[in-house]
Design goal:
single chain; rod-shaped; 8% helix; 3-stranded antiparallel β-sheet; 7 helices; little secondary structure; 479 residues
């Protein structure tokens, strides 16, 4: 806020001067005209001379002159009133002086930001040289701004404080000095929302400028706004101390608590304002699945661990992944049996998508293209007995280990199986099972093909018949 302290006692002129008291200004007391005349200044403010001599010698100057003796008020030396006594903001002498002092968007603007502030009356600009010269200060010229003032249009342009150094989209970077209706102080008056250029494409200013901005475009600390520097996060970092640790920024990335791309680039390659992830992460991390999940029990990238470090099979993030990708009583299933194909972390729909922290289930590339998933279970999937088990629903978080009957129980069977239930499975599936329950060749089990090798006889797939089997002595039998 501008101060209105008394000027110090002016120094004496080297010799008495004789000056002419002018009387073309209006409204000032005679004593002011006299005081300025005594200083050797051509006072034009008073139309009332009250006997003031046309010429006089200069004695000692008065020592109680203040800024508000000529303009402003006792509370505030900035107009209104102007030196001509006006209080109308449509006049240049009043204009937006008070708007610059009482804004909730920034600290009060000091007089020196736009004018030369005299140290005493002898250094005050000559009143004959009206209007007051506009000389921009350190805030208006910050960040390389080169401001100008145009009296004819009553506008200042290219000032730091009205967004000259900020990228794109500002709509009032040359504000009108006499317009004080509030239309020139919206966020987009000085910068875009978001600002554009290299700035992240987010209008949530508080995410990066927490020391200054609050939700909804509010300014929470006006002292730090429009102060000649950009205040970012905490100690010039949006992130708290220790955020470089994977255990700190990893969960935020996976759950989309913050969108890394806003600052680090669309491909996390780095930008003018933030380093790229490759600067810290090990080479090859982008296509290394176990960099983010899995790797504990086997190398496919299937959890455990899950994205948040979980290892419990009771959570969907872990569940039965290991059983599906391990060669047990079936071949190891590829991830694409249940998930979209992924080439690296930036594959569309992988790390950054509409369901952060959750993997998409897509059966379209596997053996069960007509299957459906509804957490926590799969329905109508080939690998869990579609057409063999009624409903064919398998939960991804099983309560107990699966058995043969979980997918094709003897009680329900399929096609002609029910009439053959008295026979061990290896009677017809000799290459797959060793007996009724033991899978001896996992690669031929649940592989999308019915593997028929009979202990006696031959299965003819084209005609769906058995020929020469010991159990059908009457000839070929259609299955």
């Amino acid at each position: 806020m501008p101060t209105d302290a008394p000027f110090p006692a002016p120094r004496r002129h080297p010799q008495p001067r004789r000056v002419r008291a002018r009387s073309s200004w209006g409204g000032a007391p005679t004593v002011l005209a006299l005081a300025l005349a005594l200083l050797g200044l051509a006072c034009q403010r008073s139309q009332v001379t009250d006997g003031l001599p046309e010429t006089m010698d200069c004695p000692d100057c008065p020592q109680t002159m203040r800024c508000s003796s000529c303009h402003g008020s006792a509370e505030d030396p900035a107009p209104p009133t102007a030196v001509n006594g006006s209080s109308n903001p449509a006049e240049l002498g009043v204009g937006a002086h008070q708007a610059h002092l009482e804004s909730s968007l920034g600290r009060p603007v000091e007089c020196a930001e736009c004018h030369v502030v005299p140290s005493d009356l002898l250094t005050h600009p000559d009143p004959l040289n009206r209007p007051a010269p506009v000389v921009f200060g350190s805030i208006a010229t910050a960040a390389g701004a080169a401001p100008t003032w145009d009296r004819a249009s009553a506008t200042c342009a290219s000032t730091y404080c009205h967004g000259a150094t900020l990228p794109e989209a500002a709509i009032r970077t040359a504000p009108e000095w006499t317009r004080v209706d509030g239309t020139q102080k919206a966020c987009t008056s000085c910068h875009g929302n978001p600002p554009g250029g290299v700035h992240p494409a987010s209008s949530a200013c508080e995410n990066c400028h927490a020391a200054v901005a609050g939700p909804g475009g509010t300014i929470t600390n006006a002292v730090l706004h429009i102060d000649g520097k950009v205040d970012v996060g905490r100690e010039n970092s949006i992130h708290p101390t220790g955020y470089a640790s994977p255990s700190a920024h990893g969960p935020d990335t996976f759950t989309a608590a913050t969108d890394c791309r806003l600052c680090h680039g669309a491909e996390l390659q780095g930008t003018d304002i933030a380093i790229g992830c490759d600067s810290c992460h090990q080479a090859g991390w982008r296509s290394n699945c176990v960099y983010c999940h899995g790797g504990t029990l086997e190398a496919s990238g299937a959890p455990p661990v899950d994205l948040l470090g979980g290892t419990s099979t009771t959570s969907l993030g872990v569940g039965s992944h290991t059983e599906h990708v391990s060669r047990t009583d079936h071949a190891a299933f590829a991830c694409t049996e249940c998930h979209p194909a992924v080439t690296d972390v930036m594959t569309p729909g992988h790390l950054f998508d509409g369901t952060p922290g959750r993997a998409e289930v897509d059966f379209g590339r596997g053996r069960s293209q007509a299957a459906a998933y509804a957490a926590p279970g799969c329905r109508d999937v080939y690998c869990h007995g579609t057409g063999l088990t009624a409903g064919s629903v398998a939960t991804f978080v099983p309560a107990a280990a699966l058995t043969c009957d979980s997918c094709h129980p003897a009680a329900t069977g399929s096609s002609g199986h029910v009439v053959h239930a008295v026979l061990p499975c290896n009677t017809c599936h000799l290459d797959v099972v060793a007996d009724r329950t033991t899978v001896k060749n996992p690669d031929l089990h649940v592989n999308g093909t019915v593997e028929v090798t009979m202990t006696t006889g031959t299965y003819l797939a084209d005609t769906d018949t058995c020929s020469g089997s010991a159990c059908h002595t009457t000839g070929d039998v259609t299955w």
